[in-house]
Specification:
The chain has one domain (45-156). The protein is globular. The strands form 2 sheets. The chain has a two-stranded antiparallel sheet with strand order 1-2. Strands 3-4 form a two-stranded antiparallel sheet. By secondary structure, it is of the alpha+beta class. Helix content is 43%, strand content 17%. It is built from 7 helices and 4 strands. The chain has helices at residues 2-25, 50-55, 80-88, 90-93, 102-106, 131-139, 141-151, and strands spanning 63-70, 73-77, 114-121, 124-128.
Length: 157
Amino acid sequence: MHATRRSILERIRGILVAVGALVLLSGAPAWAKAPIYSDWLGRAIGGFDPVAYFTMGKPVKGSGDFTAEWQGATWRFVSAANRDAFIAGPEKYAPQYGGYCAYAVSQGYTASIEPEAWHLVNGKLYLNYSLEVWQTWLADRDAYIAAADRNWPGVLE
């Protein structure tokens, strides 16, 4: 029985070494961040409707009745019309920088967001970590956007 146990452990170790080698050789770091920031339930923007920022001028919690999958995240909407608009043109409605904090991306890292800390600039949605960070971001918005544009998507690596 002891020899069998050792044999099984050796096979498991061999499999783990092989898997590790595949990860290292894949070219993609195992620690890369997802292209869309989502909460622990996989909801983009914490379940808020991205289209509502444009059509209602405010953050509105989406419904589990109206969802779409895009870039590995679940997007929620207040209506079928908003969902359908998003599906027809997700790049038009999805927040910049995958929904990560725009200020953080401008500084070279990623951070979560507060759906209430938002701003539309030239038809694009930007989100920030908090209302305080949002105030900082607004003070020099164009410079922060330019810096974030240079840093994105490199901050995901």
